[in-house]
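May I ask for a protein sequence together with how it folds?
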Amino acid sequence: MYEKAAQVMEDLFARDCQFAMATAQDGIPSNDQHMCYLKIELVDGFFYQDGMGYAIDFSKKTARSFPFEYDIVPSL
């Protein structure tokens, strides 16, 4: 189930998560003193697609799926 949930997450979010790194010539990272690196470590999460919810624990590499219907209620 973990692999399936990870694939769904990639399908949903990969296009939207593009990280850019300043580079010099030939793809070698720049020595720009103002450049910083960011490391993101996912712990757990929830997402849904096509009526199925996925709860995923990245640290344990486990996931569960369940039927999920969302009801969006606009706020005033």
Summary: The chain is about 15% helix and 25% strand. Residues 2-67 form one domain. The first helix runs from residue 2 to 13. Residues 20-24 have pLDDT under 50 and may be disordered.
